[in-house]
Amino acid sequence: MIPDPTSRSADDRRASILAALAGAGRVEVNELAESLAVAEETIRRDLRTLEDDGLLRRAHGGAISVADPVADLDRLTVPEPVAHPVATLAATLLPERGILFLDAGPIAEALAVCVPNSPALQVVTTSIPVALVASRNAELSVYNLGGTVDPADDSQSGQWTRESLERIRVDLAFISVTGLTQDGELLAASPKAARIKRAAMDAASTVVLIADHDQLEANGLVKFAQLGEVDHLVVDGGVGDAVLALAAEAGVPVLRSSPVKTGITP
């Protein structure tokens, strides 16, 4: 029997999440919200906190156990039954041919599932999970740039990665962020991540920013670009009017998914 949600502390909720994760290896946001009788956004906040503590890794729709990517190959390369709404929208911008850069993070992983299995496309990435997902397609050329691995999201950075990006040409880059300032500055979690994102943008003819509302509301550490430098902004339905106003002022076209309607309240 589910206890009164008002009696459950954040620590209790997170302990329950970790227990479910230990048993199944993966948890889903909607299932956790239902079983714990809280809003899905509350679960997403819990997952972000647990990820920051190194106790799990968020994936589109939920979270997975912290594990070695090679040992967890099957889990990483099987597409999720429910696509990330931002990735689904971003996939409408995928070209029939050309060179793509996919950044790290859950949305980029979901987008990798959507890339067509075509010899006319090439994928360049600094994310181990993205490379594993995209490489399921035998006709698709996938290039993982290598570098120092960040265990938080299995992304790669450092001089090796940056210099590799400086030597290549990209037609379309999908970039993620960990924050957006009130002045329209894009933020990364660390100096290393900021340098890689900047290098990817400089290498690309067209830049698409992919983010959900909680990423745009987060407080990243390092500024690496202005919103006006991107060619498209693809966001979820929870993004607020302030972000949309910044995009309009910068002249950036926005693709926005429909807000998700649920019967759950915080």
TrEMBL record:
Gene Ontology MF terms in the entry: DNA binding; DNA-binding transcription factor activity
Keyword set includes DNA-binding: yes
Any one Pfam family match given in the protein's UniProt record, by short name: DeoRC
Domain of life of the native organism: Bacteria
InterPro entries the UniProt entry points to: Carb_Metab_HTH_regulators, DeoR-like_C, DeoR_HTH, NagB/RpiA_transferase-like, Tscrpt_reg_HTH_DeoR_CS, WH-like_DNA-bd_sf, WH_DNA-bd_sf
Signal peptide: none
PROSITE patterns: HTH_DEOR_1, HTH_DEOR_2
Residues in HTH deoR-type domain copies: 10-65
Keywords assigned: DNA-binding, Repressor, Transcription, Transcription regulation
SUPFAM superfamilies: NagB/RpiA/CoA transferase-like, Winged helix' DNA-binding domain
PANTHER family: GLYCEROL-3-PHOSPHATE REGULON REPRESSOR, HTH-TYPE TRANSCRIPTIONAL REGULATOR SRLR-RELATED
Function as written in the Swiss-Prot or TrEMBL entry: Repressor of the lactose catabolism operon. Galactose-6-phosphate is the inducer.
Protein name stated in the entry: Lactose phosphotransferase system repressor
